[in-house]
Structure formats: structure tokens, C-alpha cells
Specification:
This is Conserved hypothetical FMN binding protein. It holds the Pfam family Flavin_Reduct. GO terms for molecular function: FMN binding; oxidoreductase activity, acting on the CH-NH group of donors, NAD or NADP as acceptor. The chain is mainly beta and 201 residues long. It has a single domain, classed as Roll (Pnp Oxidase, Chain A). 12% of the residues lie in helices and 35% in strands. The chain is built from four helices and 14 strands. It has a seven-stranded antiparallel β-sheet, with helices on one face. The chain is globular, with a radius of gyration of 17 Å.
């Protein structure tokens, strides 16, 4: 099968996000200028640089009460900070609750019964039970082609890791089984690893 995206695929569901998979989930916490906390998962997310460490996530839709975007991007525009909370398999259900399209005044931490913890380097809440959290300062927001497509880039200013996931000096993802997004409504978790040596190692 071949199709041109502008002409449509003719399938019951869009295959694009099933092709680009798995994708890590950026569970983004943010706080508006009014102090309102927000928490939402984004599957267009990744780390993009080592020195200094930087991450990105993309928001691709809008809400009526936020104009051209959603709560996360609107808050980050106002305050210039956000936190990435890593999603473990154990947190899958509360992460899913936080994905709902709620009014801007709804605190998804409270809605999903998620405990907050303060960040150290930014004025933002983080998910206390997450295996790791990346505190970030906004570096730029890039508008992409299409309505409401924004990529948010941030520099990591603080990193939290739960001690139980540090094994022999390494952050061991098998101890918490990070969740990833596949296509449609499908997810997967990492529960086994293998290593490959590079040719120049």
C-alpha cells in the first residue's frame, strides 16, 4: 500500500502514529501565571541533546478556552518552565486520567489523585511517584505547519531519580518498566533489554 497524506489513506484509522512507534511519553506538568497546575501526557516527546541536556514535546491540537493551543503550551508561554515526568507501567491508569480534555481550571493532579512534589530549580509541581523527573526551562517554542502544531524545547535544569531505580550505578528502566505509546489506543512497556556494541567501540 502507498498513499499520499494529503489524499488520505482510506483506512478506518490513521496509520501514521502506528508506523512511528514506540514513542516515549512526556508527562508534562506546568503551572500557569495564576498558580494553576496542569498535567498532561504527550507522545510526541524525546530528548534532543546531551550538553546541555535538552528535551522537546509537541502539542498538536487546541482547546476553546486556550485559543490556538492546549493548557501545557499556554502555561509554558506564561511562565517559561515545565517538568517532564517519566511514566512507569504502574502509573499507566492515572496517566490516562490526566489525558482528558478538561477545562483550564481543572488540576489533573487532583482529578487523578496524583501526589505532587515541588521542583527544586523551577516553580512547578512534579509527579512524586514518577521514577524520574526532568525540570526544564523553556528555550523556544516553534510553530510547525498546520493549525495548533507547536514544538516546545526546554533545557533540563534539574533531574530527580528515585533511588530504588539506581542499580550498580545505572538508572535501570527494567525496575519500573517505562511506558511507551504505539498507534491507535495501544501502549507497550519496556521489560527486557539487550545490548549492541558499536563498530568503533
Amino acid at each position: 500500500m502507498f498513499y499520499r497524506p494529503e489524499e488520505g489513506h482510506g483506512l478506518p484509522h490513521n496509520p501514521f502514529n502506528a508506523i512511528v512507534a514506540p514513542r516515549p511519553i512526556g508527562w508534562i506538568s506546568s503551572r500557569g501565571a495564576d498558580g494553576q497546575d496542569n498535567l498532561a501526557p504527550y507522545s510526541f516527546f524525546n530528548a534532543v541533546a546531551y550538553v546541555p541536556p535538552q528535551v522537546m514535546f509537541a502539542s498538536t491540537s487546541a482547546k476553546e478556552d486556550r485559543g490556538d493551543t492546549k493548557d501545557s503550551v499556554a502555561n509554558i508561554r506564561e511562565t517559561g518552565v515545565f517538568c517532564v515526568n517519566i511514566v512507569s507501567y504502574a502509573l499507566r491508569d492515572v496517566m490516562n486520567v490526566s489525558s482528558g480534555s478538561y477545562p483550564a481550571e481543572v488540576d489533573e493532579f487532583a482529578r487523578a489523585g496524583i501526589e505532587k512534589a515541588p521542583c527544586e530549580t523551577i516553580d512547578c509541581a512534579r509527579v512524586a511517584a514518577a521514577p524520574a523527573n526532568l525540570e526544564c526551562r523553556l528555550t523556544q517554542i516553534v510553530q510547525l505547519e498546520g493549525p495548533s502544531n507547536f514544538v516546545v524545547f526546554g533545557q533540563v535544569t534539574g533531574i530527580h531519580m528515585r533511588d530504588e531505580h539506581l542499580v550498580d550505578g545505572r538508572f535501570d528502566v527494567t525496575t519500573f518498566r517505562p511506558l511507551s505509546r504505539l498507534g491507535y489506543r495501544d501502549y507497550a512497556c519496556v521489560d527486557n533489554l539487550f545490548s549492541l556494541a558499536r563498530p568503533d567501540d
